[in-house]
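Task: sequence in, structure out. Protein: Peptidase M20 dimerisation domain-containing protein.
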Amino acid sequence: MKFSIASPAFFLFSLIIAANAVSVPVLPREGKSKGRGKGGHRYGGEYGSDGVGGARPAPDSEDWTNATAALIELHKNLCEIPSIAPNELAVGDWLATYLRSKSFTVEKQEVARNRNNIFAYLGNKNRTKTLVTSHIDVVPPYINYTYHPNGTITGRGTNDAKGCVAAQIKAVEGLLTKGLIGEGDVAMLFVVAEETDGAGMIKANDLGLTWDSVIFGEPTELRLSLGHKGVLRFSIEAFGKAAHSGYPQFGINANEDLVEALHILSKMKLPGSDLLGNSTLNYGIMGGGTAPNIISPYANASVAIRLAADPLLVRALVNETVKDLPVTLTWFERFYGPQYLDYDVEGFETRAQAYGTDIPNLKGSHKRYLYGPGSILTAHGNAEFVTVTDLVKSVEGYKALIMHTLP
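Result:
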């Protein structure tokens, strides 16, 4: 059974599910810890009784009901607009209109033709202490938004990362409504191209702005991230000699050379770290040959390494491993090493991530936090989903992080 978001049944199920959410308390501005902290505590808050922050409000609370419905509505609108990179124009335009309707000042930063970052802030001060940011592009294919009776929402981008976008916006709106933030405190940046080449966040550096703290939104299962792996990529090519497959002795099989090299690479021991675990290698794309009855004259593969160690060290190890093999490696110019993040906020569980983000693409000396609803284990898959409970929790989590970053 499917529900319309405007139907009474939809709201009933949403509120029943979300009423059990255990949310993060909004932290006071004073008494914060400094630097990187230990974190690691289960959080509770104004929607739960198993932690600090008071008792859960009654499920029929009008403010609570309206806030939950508005969150789900915003999330639905974002997810129903396809935005597979590089086609993010429509969702960006819709988002800009929405933010202006909420009295934010909105700037569109052109990244490329028909591709815009959306930058929003209060009043006339685009220089703020804190930035919250996520991305509005998604991976293919488009999957329809569907709300399920158990409070699960499936569809492309529901998790990665339009759940983060919706929750971040509602967190800022909520703090503004309560008078806890004002002009010059918080800005929002929603970028394109995170899922491809990072061009959106790279372009954001041209805004010429700096922040004390930046809160990045990606699916972390509501845990504050300790850090995430880096990325190193290369292509590998083998050049052979074509011949009739009945007379292989007169040819050189590039496919065989490539397969041998990839097998050796897959067995090599890569360095790692205690925090991020092992570095891992994946050859995700392979190609070679021209026909079954022709000895392959050419073969290639694209390889990505998720780095838990120094990228230059790993690169040197890979080069050494294949130096005597009949293959050619070409390294991608753009790479980054492991990212170690800030987590000096009480009340959050913590975990390191194996995936990559836009975090290294935004330059500056700001503190860096990573947090969001949903799991990376369902992102990019055919069953991508987020729960209403996690969406509600994450709004409170973002509120806590924002308040923690403000003096």
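Residues 240 and 297 are 4 Å apart (CA to CA).
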